[in-house]
Design brief:
Blueprint: E1 10-13, E2 20-23, H1 38-45, H2 60-67, H3 77-83, E3 91-92, H4 93-97, H5 108-115, E4 121-123, E5 129-132, H6 182-185, H7 201-210, H8 217-230, H9 236-248, E6 252-253, H10 263-268, H11 271-277, E7 281-282, H12 297-313, H13 317-336, H14 344-370, H15 374-382, H16 399-403, H17 415-429, H18 432-439, E8 445-459, H19 463-475, E9 485-492, E10 521-527, H20 528-531, E11 539-547, E12 551-561, H21 570-575, H22 599-611
Antiparallel strand pairs: 1-2, 3-5, 4-5, 6-7, 8-9, 8-11, 9-10, 11-12
Helix pairs in contact: 1-5, 9-13, 12-13, 12-14, 13-14, 15-17
GO biological process, one term: regulatory ncRNA-mediated gene silencing
Pfam families: Arb1 (PF09692), La (PF05383)
Biased composition (Acidic residues): 590-602
């Protein structure tokens, strides 16, 4: 039921807090519609003044009304910068509640409810901003002629003109602050500059016992994994990468072995017992079989970062950086706590691989998107390679694409443009023999090859080449996009994988159709902007056109890889773990007469069938 809201008057301070004035209560004799929680609001926002003042304070609503009143607002520089004076821009209620004389009114929800009772101010529907219902009409500090009043006497020697023009404060809100909690902003241990804290003598003694050299590596690494997770803030983006790397390295993950531990039981355990009780990653003992499993931190790191992770999560720089930092932090932890000093050299090599991956993977992706370049594309169009017949600018069936706003002239290269760019490249970089073959139209394809390549040298264009291309661009009136060509020298590279070949061992002792002596070098002409991202050791899966005159054309690049690329059988383990084979009597192919009729056997078979796949799946 609605009630009347009245209050006594009080001396109210302005938001400038430099001047004070006495304001009569605008609603002392009026009745307004009360808020449903009016009693709570009045109980919260009414406050007693100091003992020197016998009267009580007034509602928050009257304080805020004074801030926006015609008496205070025209000279309130701080508030004018947010509301814009006559523009009557909405001001954040949180900012108003931050005023020194408003901080005592809490909670904020009740302050908003009280402000909605005002007949002078208007609160937004979401309760976040407030403004006057009727904008300010007179002049204010924002007007250049505000102080041009001849009736006001002042001493010119002490006059301080207001700044002109007075800027309006643009309130910008960080979009990430609302979604990130305080705990998310705390150090996680995965920062690039994070340093492991010094160990106390007691902690050092415990770790000497946990990671004693007489214990098997399987025991030590299992405890170290759990303690590493305990010492880091495992946010989702870190835990996801870490769990994938653990599985790639042969570490199983599952629920905790001891689910019902009490705090008293945990306090009675030593550090190693507690780590094992809380562990969710386990290293099975069959990993100790050196004929099946090998401890190789550097090799696993190479296979994970160069092959599996980019293939499944892409080459986005922030994802690559995150993956490298998670692995880098784990390797540093193992080295600092002396978990496996016998593999310290491998851990140091793995740290170098993380640094190389963070630098090379984004470059390899950029090069893969840019190759093969305009010169090689032009040659491919002319000699019937992978780029031939891809140009759609002169196709009648592509008119519908143009009507939809698609610039189909950017798809492929026209034959006229291809001949111009290829001819200019031959004239500037080619030998006299190559230029003569091109002029006489005797350049032809001798062979087509599909092979893996490794970059061994990079030669950017020299000054003479750049000057010649600049002259050609001027000759064509800058209508033809010409970039100076450099040289990229590659050799044949044979990757290691799971491919098996059925070949006679007397002719192929290594079981493969090639040997290390089969390597061959190729020289390609590549644009300068593409060469900037190339690096020594970069791998490519490419198709090559070998032309007469010793000219090699990079027809198509299927994939680009970093210098330490390696494929490991662990990738098969990531996709699907092998199932345990179970033989059932019903599947033995026995005749009906030979099948056992024992009810116990039938029940046993049914239980096995109902159980489904093994727990290892």
């Amino acid at each position: 039921m609605a009630t009347a809201v009245t209050s006594p008057t009080e001396d109210i301070g302005s938001s400038n807090e430099d001047s004070q004035s006495t304001i009569p209560n605008p609603t002392s004799s009026s009745t307004v519609q009360d808020h449903p929680d009016g009693d709570d609001i009045r109980r919260q926002v009414w406050f007693p003044t100091p003992a020197s003042n016998e009267s009580y304070g007034i509602l928050t609503i009257f304080k805020v009304e004074y801030y926006f009143s015609d008496e205070n607002l025209p000279t309130d520089k701080h508030l004018l910068q947010f509301c814009g004076g006559r523009e009557n821009l909405p001001v954040s209620i949180s900012r108003i509640c931050g005023f020194s004389r408003m901080r005592q009114y809490k909670p904020k929800s009740l302050v908003i409810a009280a402000l909605r009772l005002s007949t002078f101010l208007e609160v937004s529907a979401d309760g976040k901003t407030i403004k006057r219902k009727i904008p300010l009409q007179g002049k204010c500090l924002l007007d250049p002629d505000f102080f041009d009043d001849e009736d006001i006497a002042y001493d010119p020697r002490v006059q301080k003109p207001a700044p002109r023009p007075m800027p309006i404060v643009q309130v910008k809100k960080d979009a990430h602050l609302e979604r990130v909690s305080k705990n998310m902003r705390k150090p996680t241990g995965f920062e690039r500059t994070y340093m492991e804290p010094l160990l106390t003598p007691e902690e050092a003694s415990q770790e000497d016992d946990m990671y004693a050299s007489d214990k098997h590596f399987v025991e030590r690494i299992e405890v170290a994994i759990q303690r590493f997770k305990h010492k880091r803030r495992m946010h989702e983006m870190y835990a996801h990468v870490f769990n994938k790397f653990m599985r790639f390295g042969g570490v199983d993950a599952g629920p905790r072995m001891y689910q019902g531990l009490s705090k008293q039981e945990m306090n009675e355990m030593d550090a190693e017992e507690l780590a094992r009780a809380l562990a969710t990653h386990h290293v099975p003992w069959d990993r100790s079989d050196e004929t099946q499993w090998v401890v190789d931190f550097a090799g696993v790191c190479k296979g994970f970062l160069s092959s599996w992770y980019p293939a499944h999560y892409g080459y986005a720089p922030h994802l690559i950086k995150n993956a490298c930092q998670v692995l880098r932090s784990f390797f540093r932890y193992l080295r600092y706590h002396r978990v496996c000093p016998e593999y310290d050299d491998q851990l140091a090599a793995a740290l170098d691989i993380c640094d190389a991956a963070e630098e090379q993977l984004p470059k390899a992706n950029a090069v893969g998107l840019a190759l093969t370049g305009d010169f090689n594309k032009s040659a491919s169009v002319i000699f019937g390679g992978a780029q031939a017949s891809l140009y759609t600018g002169n196709k009648s069936w592509a008119e519908g694409l143009r009507e939809e706003g698609v610039n189909n002239k950017e798809i492929g290269i026209s034959e006229e443009e291809a001949k111009a760019k290829f001819g200019i490249g031959i004239a500037i970089l080619g030998s006299e023999e190559q230029f003569g073959l091109y002029e006489s139209s005797k350049l032809e394809v001798l062979s087509k090859k599909s092979t893996y390549l490794e970059v061994i040298t990079i030669h950017p264009p020299n000054d003479d080449t750049k000057a010649a291309y600049d002259a050609q661009s001027t000759l064509y009136g800058r209508k033809l996009e010409l970039q100076p060509l450099g040289k990229l020298t590659c050799k044949t590279w044979y990757p290691t994988g799971c491919d098996e070949y059925d070949l006679p061992m007397d002719k192929y002792p290594n079981g493969k159709p090639w040997t290390s002596s089969d390597s061959q070098e190729y020289e390609f002409w590549i644009e300068e902007d593409i060469l900037r991202d190339c690096f020594i050791g970069m791998k490519m899966d490419a198709d090559i056109l070998v032309l007469s005159g010793g000219l090699n054309i990079l027809d198509n690049v299927k994939e680009t890889m970093c210098s330490f690329y390696v494929w490991l059988p662990n990738e098969l383990w990531m996709e699907r773990k092998p199932k345990e084979v179970r033989w059932l009597k019903k599947g033995m192919g026995l005749d009906e007469d030979d099948e056992p009729n024992d009810d116990n056997d039938d029940k046993e078979a049914k239980q096995v069938a109902d159980k489904g796949p093994s727990d290892d799946e």
